[in-house]
Q: What sequence folds into this?
């Protein structure tokens, strides 16, 4: 198996670290400390729920922002700055470069998310001085956030192969928001009497990545268990979708003339 | 018989232009040439001639509209070809968050060198291009000349058999140019094939076994610098000094050009001795006498001038 994507991935991770991307952790830490102090004063009995809700939402939002804003520049920036010229003259295939860039950003997001999860755990412990068995759902929620981030990264990378960062951001963000509201789109297709609209919305529903299924923050906050079937479903769904987007990205990028 | 190092057959590249991108502009027009193993080959032409397009096509950075090319018998689409070549792009850009050492180590990983080999090579090549002292400085702090040196180091790091250098001298001071020239000569001595584009014709004359001249995407001539330009002596150049109290003979004064306290005159070969006699008569001090031959530069500018005046350029020694 080729080690080249791994070499590119490590360099992409190093780039993110040196560009001080992980500094967002400071904001997250400050936010969690502030929340832990405030929650104790304004909410009685629901401190844990508020902290979990806030913490997981922040992990998701910070991750999505990073995935989009770094992802849209992954390939475009290399083409624009011509750093690809020297790289592609080495024995490396274009798809290997793409997979490496994807894996590198994903590694950055995993490290970032893991550190934020530790921060959330610390804040939770400060508030309630204990961990409960139901808190394991928080880890499932974090895992789903990572699956979501993998999908968003793949989408951003795909657009980065052929359009500018600004348009890529719009497209990726648009698809993400639409994907979060996927059940609403499905609802339109079920309840409309206009058959054209029904066909179009059904098509869009199946085409868009369904981000709604990854949202279990409320369950985690209430300590409700997440069905194992959903974990499997989301894992396979995200893996297949990411694979599909990476194949499409490789197809686009492999035929692309560099400036 | 051994394969040529580089074989280019009717390589053509069209770019879509305009808002609808329906019009095509031809950047390279049926370029065919061969470069033999161990040859030092110069690729000459003004801006927009198609030199960088050719390099980018050979590197697989862009794709040809038609035509094919092979390097050491392998198609340019074959990724294994890249193991045998090194490439320095024009005005090289690198990851500026890395140090020179980290960048070279990163590139070395693509060739499967182990850690010890990587460290040894990186140190050796940084030293070769005169960057040993700056090895651990981030590239964002490097000058253009230093980046150019990093570009050369990364191109030859894995001992490639064929080295492509796109304008390797640009951005370098005279000392840097000399060092790069020495590196190229050293590579040549080691039997490597060097294919480089340049604007600096004196470098091409000094370094190249053969040159190709490209103009508006078309090959205008291929051959040794001596074949491309006639080596026939076209006159003699005399450089001399005369005392302030002395007056130059009228026929010489009319033709000589004053450069500071010296004079330069171009004369026909048959009148050389008569003019020298006259200069001796007025106690002139002869500094140098040199034959006048057309340079590659003259050929080049002549060709560009003809192209601009719409006169079809003669194909010289195209093969």
A:
């Amino acid at each position: 198996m080729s080690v080249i994507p791994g070499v590119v991935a490590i360099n992409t991770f190093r780039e993110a670290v040196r560009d001080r991307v992980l500094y967002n952790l400071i904001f997250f830490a400050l936010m969690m400390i502030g929340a832990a102090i405030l929650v104790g004063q304004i909410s009685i009995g629901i401190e844990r729920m508020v902290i979990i809700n806030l913490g997981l939402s922040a992990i998701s939002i910070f991750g999505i922002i990073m995935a989009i804003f770094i992802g849209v520049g992954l390939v475009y920036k290399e083409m624009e700055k011509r750093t690809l010229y020297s790289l592609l003259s080495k024995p490396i295939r274009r798809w290997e470069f793409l997979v490496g860039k994807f894996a590198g950003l994903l590694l950055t997001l995993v490290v970032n998310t893991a550190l934020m999860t530790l921060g959330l755990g610390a804040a939770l412990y400060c508030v309630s001085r204990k961990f409960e068995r139901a808190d394991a759902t928080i880890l499932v929620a974090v895992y789903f956030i990572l699956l979501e981030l993998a999908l968003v990264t793949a989408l951003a990378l795909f657009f980065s192969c052929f359009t500018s960062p600004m348009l890529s951001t719009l497209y990726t963000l648009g698809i993400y928001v639409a994907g979060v509201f996927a059940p609403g789109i499905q609802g339109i297709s079920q309840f409309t009497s206009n058959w054209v609209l029904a066909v179009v919305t059904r098509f869009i529903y199946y085409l868009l990545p369904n981000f709604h299924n990854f949202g279990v923050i409320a369950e985690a906050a209430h300590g409700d268990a997440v069905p194992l079937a959903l974990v499997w479903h989301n894992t396979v769904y995200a893996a297949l979708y990411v694979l599909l987007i990476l194949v499409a990205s490789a197809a686009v990028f492999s035929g692309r003339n560099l400036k | 018989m051994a394969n040529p190092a580089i074989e280019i057959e009717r390589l053509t590249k069209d770019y879509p232009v305009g808002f609808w991108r329906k019009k095509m502009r031809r950047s390279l027009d049926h370029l065919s040439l061969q470069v033999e193993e161990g040859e030092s080959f110069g690729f000459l032409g003004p801006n927009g001639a198609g030199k960088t397009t050719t390099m980018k096509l050979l590197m697989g950075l862009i794709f040809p509209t038609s035509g094919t090319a092979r390097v050491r018998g392998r198609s340019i689409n074959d990724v294994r070809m890249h193991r045998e070549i090194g490439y320095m792009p024009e005005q090289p850009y690198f990851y500026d968050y890395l140090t020179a050492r980290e960048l070279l180590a990163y590139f070395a990983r693509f060739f499967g060198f182990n850690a010890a080999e990587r460290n040894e090579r990186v140190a050796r090549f940084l030293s070769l291009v005169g960057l040993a002292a700056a090895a651990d400085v981030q590239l964002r702090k490097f000058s253009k000349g230093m980046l150019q040196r990093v570009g050369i180091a990364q191109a030859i790091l894995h001992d490639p058999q064929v080295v492509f250098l796109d304008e390797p001298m640009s951005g370098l001071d005279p000392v840097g140019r000399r060092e790069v020239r020495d590196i190229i000569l050293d590579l040549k001595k080691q039997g490597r094939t060097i294919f480089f584009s340049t604007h600096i014709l004196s470098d091409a004359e000094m370094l190249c076994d053969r040159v190709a001249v490209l103009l508006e995407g078309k090959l205008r001539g291929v051959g040794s610098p001596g074949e491309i330009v006639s080596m026939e002596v076209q006159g003699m150049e005399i450089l001399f000094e005369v005392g302030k109290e002395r007056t130059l003979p009228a026929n010489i004064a009319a033709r000589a050009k004053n450069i500071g306290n010296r004079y330069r005159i171009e004369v026909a070969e048959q009148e050389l001795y008569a003019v020298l006699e006259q200069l001796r008569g007025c106690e002139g001090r002869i500094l140098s006498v040199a034959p006048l031959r057309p340079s590659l530069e003259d050929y080049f500018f002549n060709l560009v001038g003809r192209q601009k005046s719409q006169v079809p350029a003669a194909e010289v020694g195209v093969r």
Summary: Residues 134 and 223 of chain A are 5 Å apart (CA to CA). The radius of gyration of chain A is 20 Å.
